[in-house]
Amino acid sequence: MDRGTGPADKKRKTSWKKDPEAVKENILTIATEEFAAQGLAGANINEIAKRTATSKRMIYYYFGDKEGLYQHVLERVYSSLRNTEQALNVADLDPVPALRRLTEATFDSHVNNPQFIRLVMIENIHNAEYVKKSEIIPKLNKAIIDKLADVCERGKASGVLRQDADPLELHWMTSSASFYNVSNEATFSASFGNSLHTVEGQKRLRQRVVDMVLGAVVIGYQPNELHSN
Amino acid sequence: MDRGTGPADKKRKTSWKKDPEAVKENILTIATEEFAAQGLAGANINEIAKRTATSKRMIYYYFGDKEGLYQHVLERVYSSLRNTEQALNVADLDPVPALRRLTEATFDSHVNNPQFIRLVMIENIHNAEYVKKSEIIPKLNKAIIDKLADVCERGKASGVLRQDADPLELHWMTSSASFYNVSNEATFSASFGNSLHTVEGQKRLRQRVVDMVLGAVVIGYQPNELHSN
DNA sequence: ATTGCAATGTACCTGGGAGTTAATTTCGTG
DNA sequence: CACGAAATTAACTCCCAGGTACATTGCAAT
């Protein structure tokens, strides 16, 4: 080829560094953005490659094919979020404050991880096919349930929580509100205006969610009156 | 071609009927299934055409392009669901039963319209681009809010609802639970087992949702004790 | 019957995007 | 320092899916 054509070697890409881990991370970061933005079918490998510091060939080298890349992206983002959640310690709080804290944290972590939300939405469109295939995702999910189970036990023992309080149901209640808040913002705002998604609206909503969850399991719970706007 | 080959004319496609409306309906029905199942990028026009009683050419004839088809599908499914909702009359119920009824109906209508749910999920992946473009969808959404606003007014007047009860927030609370219940069934079940999505589980959940919503706005609301399993 | 437009059938074109091939470079190890 | 495995580059193939061209048929009105 024209390798070494003359002394005008200026644009020679010669000499690159070996750094597999950084390359993989770089690919995954960009791929996460693209899959979250466009979905599995919608994302474009050429586009992803173009945005990375490396080449398309490297994507196939490390991840096999598009689905393999997607699977890695999914597991990575799940791990990241669950790790964040796990950092929160409520073992030394009384049951009700603990529950309030967990609910608020879940609400906030969803707001702060829109990419996670979008990837889970996409996963659901695919009937959770790749979550089911994953070895690691199921393990990650146990932690949050365990934490809620502990709070439930303590709460029932001390008589502040209803006997029918259930950790899985609690997680469902918290998640449904927190998830929907982010996942459906676009259509909800388009349909009903964005008043619930302003800074003020989100504050109120967050409080409402806490009240809903606590109201469902705390005996005699009285929600705080919100200043009507 | 082999037009009119011999007297054995049994399977002859010759002589078709003109029936534009039926053709359009047929296309939209199949397209709804495909878009709901595969998403906008994932759906395949050839595949849709193959499953219709007509041809790809007809799809482009009536709907212009893939996006046009998707837009029609979306508007059709929105209309259908909102019409169902509108059929429910709660004007002659007292505020609390009315609210219970509306909540239950919303929960049920989501369960019964998974295609609608999936298309809205897909729409959110696309940042509600096509909902925003639509002329008709925004109009459809006013009805449900009006209904809730009426209930709120009556409830506040008679003193059974808290003064900070808000129709839009109520709709959000009801929708979030009802939507998530269907939209995230796949990942939720894959992560935590399907106990909430059995017939029994869904009964409990539906009751929980009603309790959460009523608990948030009805003064002194006491949820029913659920038989612990 | 002719004409004209809406509705339909068939075949084709084309670009883009997933995945590959093969050559080249790095760099640890004997 | 040679050599082989790992890492990387550049150019290529192939096929699928969105979209189109053009001919044909049904049908209503004159």
* Structural class by sheet pairing and helices of chain A: mainly alpha
Q: Give the CATH class of the domain at 98-229 in chain A.
A: Mainly Alpha
Largest sheet of chain A: none
Morphology call of chain A: elongated
DSSP strand content of chain A: under 5%
Oligomer: homodimer
Range of helix content of chain A: 55-70%
Task: Provide the gyration radius of chain A in Å.
Answer: 23 Å
- Uncertain residue segments of chain A: 1-13
Query: Mean pLDDT across all residues of chain A, rounded?
Result: 91
Structure write-up:
The structure is a homodimer of 229-residue chains. Chain A has 229 residues and is mainly α. Chain A has a domain of 132 residues: Orthogonal Bundle (Tetracycline Repressor, domain 2). Helices cover 69% and strands 0% of the residues of chain A. In chain A, helix 1 runs antiparallel to helix 2, helix 5 packs antiparallel against helix 11 and helix 9 runs antiparallel to helix 11. The radius of gyration of chain A is 23 Å and the shape is elongated. In chain A, 38% of the residues are buried. At the A-B interface, helix 1, helix 6, helix 8, helix 9 and helix 10 of A face helix 1, helix 6, helix 8, helix 9 and helix 10 of B. Chain A binds a DNA duplex (30 and 30 nucleotides) through helix 2 and helix 3.
Brief account:
The structure is a homodimer of 229-residue chains. Chain A is mostly helical.
